[in-house]
Amino acid sequence: xxxxxxxxFHKELEQxxxxxxxxxxxxxxxxxxxxxxxxxxxxxxxxxxxxNKDKLRQMDATIEERTLHLMNLFQPMAxxxxxxxxxxxxxxxxxxxxxxxxxxxxxxxxxxxxxxxKKLVSxxxxxxxxxxxxxxxxxxxxxxxxxxxxKISERDDTIDELYYSIFRECLTxxxxxxxxxxxxxxxxxxxxxxxxxxxxACKMAExxxxxxxxxxxxxx
Amino acid sequence: MGANPNGExxxxxxxxxxxxxxxxxxxxxxxxxxxxxxxxxxxxxxxGKSTLxxxxxxxxxxxxxCKITGTVLYKGRDLYHEYNIEEIRTKIGMIFQKPNPFPMxxxxxxxxxxxxxxxxxxxxLDEIVERSLKLAVLxxxxxxxxxxxxxxxxxxxxxxxxxxxxxxxxxxILLMDEPTASLDPIASAKVExxxxxxxxxxxxxxVTHNMQQAARISxxxxxxxxxxxxxxxxxxxxxxxxxxxxxxxxxxxxxG
Lengths: 220, 256
Known about the structure:
heterodimer; A: mainly alpha; Methane Monooxygenase Hydroxylase, Chain G, domain 1; elongated; B: alpha/beta; 4-stranded antiparallel sheet; 10 helices
């Protein structure tokens, strides 16, 4: 590559990295706010999240197209190739995270008409931990430094424990009062979505680990 | 690619240094190539990759003022002291950047080497010509025009003819110095496919400026810079996760 072409390539790659962070921020915010919408029975917020799904899908498609175009034009190697490969994987995981945010928002709409079975405490806590994992994965991607994600597997174990704890708690409510079944099944679905987002954060961390170090690791 | 890491070492250098009149072209090179593997040498212009490949069949001997220290071993024996030059030319063939067929017929280009080596039986020569052209994946294109002048062939065909010519004397190693640099993409792709085929029977060392080509066809790659071998590794490893900072910079276009 001539010097001009190299500069052009790296400029475009940097812009793509920034756009992945923007997409990550959108997906993460959709997931975060979906729990607020659920807890506060805020249908306006839920509708806004659902509307953001199209924007997220557009970002996913555009970044993928531009990344493939860049590969086609410059055939990157070494770190550049690993960044490009990481971007292609990350956007898929981020699209899933945003999709789960949208699914939670749809559940929030459904559960907005009657009061909650009890004050929702565990779901926001679980949400905070999962979003923390996604934030750290994005930070590692941005800074090309794996230190924020080194303990992500242990953090995901906590998420799994929380999921089972919410599951058991909901079972108890359902056994006590059959009228809570519909609502409790929806709480379990939301918890399940959060648990899956924790897994996606781990998969992102794997790809970022490879991008930074060149070594493949299996986090989960 | 399916590197053959347990293959017998056929070429090996130990502390190889090559000096031209005033320049130190290769500095302490230690490298080995294994049987039935394709080894690529990459690096910016003037890094010494052509000098290295030329030292594998003593092409540097003919350059005035060229001095060589260290050792080059071919199958464990000193290439410079324990072989005569005819033996080396027979066993280690070379293909250059620009196709250089002899200005004679296609048939004669191939039969020339075996004739020099004393094979005069027409039937035997016919067999050699057919076998060599088939190995070079050129037979189907030229079988009906073997008596045509080789210079009438296209550039890509001429290059494959040169490869067939090298194969006619049954070498063990093929050295290729930028064999596709002067070819169009289609002809290059044919030569690349041919190299992958040849690897089953021969050991190939190739110098290339085209990193993607090295990544496509080689099992091992060495990166040279200013006369030094900076990194030598399995090709996938070197192109995906180079260990040396200089290799990383070269591959990502940050210098050179």
